[in-house]
Amino acid sequence: MKEVQDFYFKKAKKEGYPARSVYKLEEAQQKYHLLKPGNKVLDLGCQPGSWSMYAAKAVGPGGLVVGVDLTSGAIQTKVNSAKFNFLHGDITDELMLDKVREIRGEFDVIISDMAPRTTGNKWSDQQHSLILSRRVLEIALEMLAPQGNFYCKVFEGADFKEYFDTVRRYFKMTKVVKPKSSRNESREVFVLGMGFKKTTQSEE
Ligand SMILES: C[S@@+](CC[C@H](N)C(=O)[O-])C[C@H]1O[C@@H](n2cnc3c(N)ncnc32)[C@H](O)[C@@H]1O
Predict the structure, then answer these.
(1) Counting Cβ atoms within 10 Å, is residue 168 exposed (0-12), middle (13-18) or buried (19+)?
(2) What is the model's pTM?
(3) Segments forming the whole domain that contains residue 181
């Protein structure tokens, strides 16, 4: 296992990304092409910045990436990348969402690698992760453009199926993705939703 960690850690350093987590997005992108040139992307829990850097490169100079995180820090995107805006704060706070809305009300792709501060208590860690993931879905229901894509980290556990079944109602295609770069012992998985059915919510 350590060898795998070292491999992705070293690869990230070599490729100029601050975290190995970049490959959890790259693997999904290579298989499902969720990010397209020109897309406007909202990255929730973006620090230290690997996903934002990767997304900004993938969508290119015509695109936009807005990143939000509790932690602040400079994020330097690569050349030929989209414009990047960082917002410092808590995404569960409605005032923070207003700041996102001021920049843009609709995004083509919403990604979240947010994780709660883990306590070692599996049940409570999973419940906190679900609170964040449900928040990401709520934000998507408001801010994701029709046909938009969604990629969100969740800790698997007792209520995961209910969460996944809820996400399924809003997308043409959904998958549970466990990237190779995600540690086997980690309970994290990523819920992918492609082809947002914007009308579903208002029909309910
Ligand atoms: C695993 S890191 C993200 C790594 C990032 N995707 C990258 O590739 O560099 C998870 C981040 O989620 C952030 N986070 C957790 N809860 C949050 C919240 N309620 N609002 C905003 N950010 C949050 C944490 O501060 C942390 O930086």
Answers:
(1) middle
(2) 0.95
(3) 21-203
| Domain presence at residue 2 | no
Distance CA 12, CA 7 (A): 9
For the stretch 101-111, pLDDT in tens is 999 999 999 99
Tell me if 191 sits within 8 A of 176, measured CB to CB: yes
| CATH number reported for the structural domain that contains residue 109 in this entry | 3.40.50.150
Query: Does residue 156 lie in a domain region?
Result: yes
Pocket test for ligand 1, best of 29, 69, 88, 136 (most atoms within 8 A of CB): 69
pLDDT digits (tens, 9 = 90+) for 13-30: 999 999 999 999 999 999
Q: How far is the CA of 112 from the centre of ligand 1 (A)?
A: 8
Looking at the structure of the chain, the number of domains it has is 1
